[in-house]
Inverse folding.
C-alpha cells in the first residue's frame, strides 16, 4: 500500500495540509488542537473518537473534515435499533440472476462519520471492528475491500448520559486517538452566534484536496524517520502502563504502533522529517488514555485517574538524549 503513490515534496506537504487545516478551522472556531488531531488521524491511517457532551461541535468537526476532502463521505446515525447489516451491507437474493448480490452498507466510503456510536448496541458497534482494523468487510464468507484512504470519525456522548452503551475494549483499541472538544471560549461562542444566524458555515466549504492527494500526504508522513532510541522510548511508555499499579489494563502493542505513526505525522506537520521525543510524549494521553482502565478504587484519587497516571508515566520514563543511536 502506498508504494506506487507519486512522491511529493516537503513544501507540497506543508501547503496541502495548511489548506486542509484552514478549511476545517473556518468552521471550528477556537479548537486548533481538535483540528490537528483529526488531521493526524487521517494522515496516520487511524480513526478518531470524539467524546463530549451534545452541542459542542463533535459532528461539525467530522463533517468539516469530510467536506474539505473531495472524497466519498457517509454519515451513520447510530441508534438502538441500528443493525450490523445497516453498517456493513447485506447479501440480497436476485430472483432474475438466481444468485445473491451484495448491497454495500454505509461503511463503504473514504470518510465515515459514526454519529453517537455509543447509542447503538454492542453488537452493532462491533460491526465496525473488521472495517477499522483490516479495511475490509466480510459478509457470508465473501470479503469486500474498502476504499483508500479510509477514516472513521466517531462521536460519542459521555457514558453517564441516558441511552448510551459503553464501547467494548476491542472497539476502543481500534481508535487511534480520543479527544474532547470542550466548550468554546466566550469570544468564539459570540462569533458563532453572529456567523450562524445568517448561514451555515459548512455550506461554504469547498474541497481543498482529494483522495489521491491524501494518499500522497499519507505516503510522505510514512517516510518520516524514527530513531531506534525513540522506538524504544515508545515501547517503554507502553510497558510502563502495563506495570503501573494504578492501571488495571495497560496499552496494547497496537497502541504503541499507533503512537509512533501519529508522532510521524505530527513531526511532518511541524515541518520535520524526523521524530523527536516531544512528538511521542505529547500524544501519549490522546493515543493511550481511552484504551486503559484504572484499577479498582483508584477513581477516588482524582476525577481522571487514567490521565493522571499517564502524566506520571511520561514524567518518569527516561527520555532519549540527543546523542542516542539512530
Amino acid at each position: 500500500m502506498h508504494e506506487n503513490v507519486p512522491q511529493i515534496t516537503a513544501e507540497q506537504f506543508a501547503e496541502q495540509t495548511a489548506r486542509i487545516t484552514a478549511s476545517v478551522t473556518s468552521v471550528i472556531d477556537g479548537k486548533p488542537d481538535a483540528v490537528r488531531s483529526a488531521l493526524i488521524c487521517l494522515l496516520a491511517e487511524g480513526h478518531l473518537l470524539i467524546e463530549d457532551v451534545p452541542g459542542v461541535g463533535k459532528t461539525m468537526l467530522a463533517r468539516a473534515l469530510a467536506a474539505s476532502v473531495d472524497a466519498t463521505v457517509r454519515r451513520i446515525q447510530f441508534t438502538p435499533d441500528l443493525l450490523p447489516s445497516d453498517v456493513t451491507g447485506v447479501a440480497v437474493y436476485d430472483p432474475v440472476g438466481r444468485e445473491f448480490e451484495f448491497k454495500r452498507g454505509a461503511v463503504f466510503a473514504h470518510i465515515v462519520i459514526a454519529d453517537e456510536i455509543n447509542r447503538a448496541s454492542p453488537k452493532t458497534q462491533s460491526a465496525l471492528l473488521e472495517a477499522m482494523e483490516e479495511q475490509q468487510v466480510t459478509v457470508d464468507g465473501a470479503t469486500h475491500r474498502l476504499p483508500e484512504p479510509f477514516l472513521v470519525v466517531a462521536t460519542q456522548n459521555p457514558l453517564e448520559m441516558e441511552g448510551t452503551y459503553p464501547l467494548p475494549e476491542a472497539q476502543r483499541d481500534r481508535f487511534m486517538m480520543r479527544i474532547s472538544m470542550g466548550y468554546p471560549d466566550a469570544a468564539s461562542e459570540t462569533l458563532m452566534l453572529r456567523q450562524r444566524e445568517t448561514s451555515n458555515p459548512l455550506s461554504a466549504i469547498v474541497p481543498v484536496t482529494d483522495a489521491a492527494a491524501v494518499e500522497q500526504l499519507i505516503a510522505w508522513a510514512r517516510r518520516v524517520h524514527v530513531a531506534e532510541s525513540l522506538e524504544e522510548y515508545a515501547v517503554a511508555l507502553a510497558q510502563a502502563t502495563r506495570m503501573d499499579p494504578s492501571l488495571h489494563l495497560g496499552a496494547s502493542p497496537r497502541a504503541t504502533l499507533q503512537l509512533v505513526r501519529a508522532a510521524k505525522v505530527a513531526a511532518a506537520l511541524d515541518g520535520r522529517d524526523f521524530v523527536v521525543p516531544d512528538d511521542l510524549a505529547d500524544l501519549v494521553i490522546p493515543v493511550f488514555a481511552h484504551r486503559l482502565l484504572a484499577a479498582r478504587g483508584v477513581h477516588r484519587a482524582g476525577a481522571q485517574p487514567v490521565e493522571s497516571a499517564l502524566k506520571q508515566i511520561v514524567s518518569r520514563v527516561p527520555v532519549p538524549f540527543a546523542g542516542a543511536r539512530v
